[in-house]
Write a structure and sequence with these properties.
Blueprint: E1 4-10, E2 13-21, E3 26-28, E4 31-32, H1 33-36, H2 40-53, E5 59-66, H3 70-88, H4 93-99
Parallel strand pairs: 3-5
Antiparallel strand pairs: 1-2, 2-5, 3-4
Helix pairs in contact: 2-3
């Protein structure tokens, strides 16, 4: 089996994912993913596509992630893994799509406007 690559994005994070048959080892930026994502919920997010398809322990993942925070990075990695699994076998797509793993979450941080402390917050209004 050849190496399958895919890209996942979320917020400001970009994950380049390389999937190949193996023993279930997930490497992120040359580190184990459990070391890279120390929080259990983030590790669960990364494992979701494999758990849904009952393919845990059958594929090795090598990922390069840049930008954003750890939450966005974990969700970008999930999207990249899901896209790679669909490239591997197109019959996986309906299952992953119904779980919401094939959709790129488009929400981004709104920019700060001039004359305001934040994007939507305003300074206190004074009538007199």
């Amino acid at each position: 089996m050849e190496i399958i690559n895919a890209i996942g994005r979320r917020k400001a994070s970009v994950a380049r994912v390389y999937l190949k048959e193996g023993s279930g080892k997930i490497t992120v930026n040359d580190r184990d993913y459990k070391e890279y994502f120390p929080i259990d919920t983030l590790q669960y997010v990364v494992d979701q596509p494999f758990n849904l398809l009952e393919a845990a322990g059958r594929y090795d993942v090598i990922a390069t992630i840049c930008g954003g925070g750890i939450k966005g990075q974990s969700e970008a990695l999930r999207l990249g893994i899901s896209r790679a699994m669909v490239k591997l076998d197109p019959e996986n797509k309906p299952k992953l799509k119904s779980a919401g793993f094939m959709t790129r979450d488009p929400r981004e941080v709104e920019r700060k406007k001039p004359g305001q402390p934040k994007a939507r917050k305003r300074f206190q209004f004074s009538k007199r």
